[in-house]
């Protein structure tokens, strides 16, 4: 059984402000490696569209804090939903599969998913990491995952 991850929806203005403040801060740790996010699967359930994302942390260390801002677009390209997901911890050199409901509609109503930002990303020492620069995205679904 997969553990559900907590999520909170934020309004676009509040989230933009949080993201802008977070990425304006000085002192981001320089990192090598990559953090891959794959949209692995989407399936319709009675509750809506269930998505499975595979996170592969190849940054060389644990990420003790990791939040990702996703925007779901409908099949006409209109932003339908924005969500902030807390995916931490992401262990060093480890893949993690996380499943959650994207929307209360059928999956075929979703046109694409955008990784809008990574407002919070910290290594095990509590130092801010520039995860957006390390991010690689892909999709095994017909729905594209974009950066």
Report the average pLDDT across residues.
Answer: 83
Rg over C-alpha atoms, rounded to the nearest angstrom: 15 Å
Could you give the order of the helices and strands?
A: EHEEEEEEHEE
Q: Please state roughly what percent of the residues sit in beta strands, choosing from under 5%, 5-15%, 15-25%, 25-35%, 35-45% or over 45%.
A: over 45%
Structural summary, described in words:
It is a single chain. The protein has 147 residues and is mainly beta. The protein has a single domain (7-146), classed as Immunoglobulin-like (Sandwich). It contains 2 helices and 9 strands, in the order βαββββββαββ. It has helices spanning 12-24, 131-134, and strands spanning 7-8, 34-45, 48-58, 63-74, 79-86, 94-103, 110-123, 135-139, 145-146. The strands form 2 sheets. A 5-stranded mixed sheet has the order 1-5-4-7-9, with helices on one face. The protein has a 4-stranded mixed sheet with strand order 6-3-2-8. The longest helix has 13 residues, at 12-24. The protein is elongated.
